[in-house]
Write a structure and sequence with these properties.
Helix content is 21%, strand content 20%. The protein is an alpha/beta fold. Helix 2 runs antiparallel to helix 3.
Amino acid sequence: MADLYSKLGVKKGAEEAEIKKAYRKLAKELHPDRNKDNPKATERFADVTAAYDLLSDRDKRAQYDRGEIDEQGNPRGPFGFGGRGGGGFHPGAAPGGASYEFGGDGADFGDIFEGIFGRSRGGGGRRPGGFGGFGTQGGGRAPKGADISYRLAVPFEDAATLKPQRITLANGKTIDVKLPNGVESGTQMRLGGQGEAGPGGNGDAIITVDVRPHRFFKRDEDDVRLDLPVSIDEAVIGAKVKVPTVDGAVMLGIPKGSSSGKTLRLRGKGFHRKDGSRGDQLVTVMVDIPADDPGLEAFVETWDGKGKRNPRANLGV
């Protein structure tokens, strides 16, 4: 089995930023929405997501590097046996797995998520179960039931602000799930005991987040970008204008003499990072000039500055 670093295409001593960059590139290439007819890509997407989830956690990464836990985050026991007591998730898909997709709003139920989950086998979401501690399929502990995989479509603003999301599980239970810090498309969460029943207890629900695109916001790492149209008078003499953010509209000062492309920063209006801090919103000014305005045309024709300045001088033309 390839180690977690190999799955992401980085070296063992790679910096956190290098690991994150490698994961983002692979996640974009392998995302299930772009590979609907390629189950191998979907399976590899789950693998690289699991690898990133473990390696982006400093404590777990240190344990993995020391050989204390395996690729699934399970403790390595004596004689090479590992697991989490009653049977953690292990590679290999059992037959008859189930997969569900959701895209709802929030309500008010208890949050029982254990946090980021390390591994899921693509669309099937099943697990053999019952490989914990010294137990085996042939004896020891009875196997748990299969895991069930779900996909949760989350609106852009909800992902940025960590708004709880309501889902209905296969057993009919409706709950609110709390999104973790650092959430992005591909983030996986485990809901203990909400999978299929088995001799050793229920399996788990494995939920994969899919952050939906926005019509004018764009994500840039942990920041949010916005192109903001402003009128010519607002750009020339400056103004206070209302600007949308993921948290709601705020007032922003447009400096006097702002040209298209000038970028302003709204601090703390981006996505939540894993440490709980937030990125910023980067607002790029776009001067909106009306196509047919006789008064504006007449002013420019008689403007003293007409033809006296070359804004393309830096381009050598």
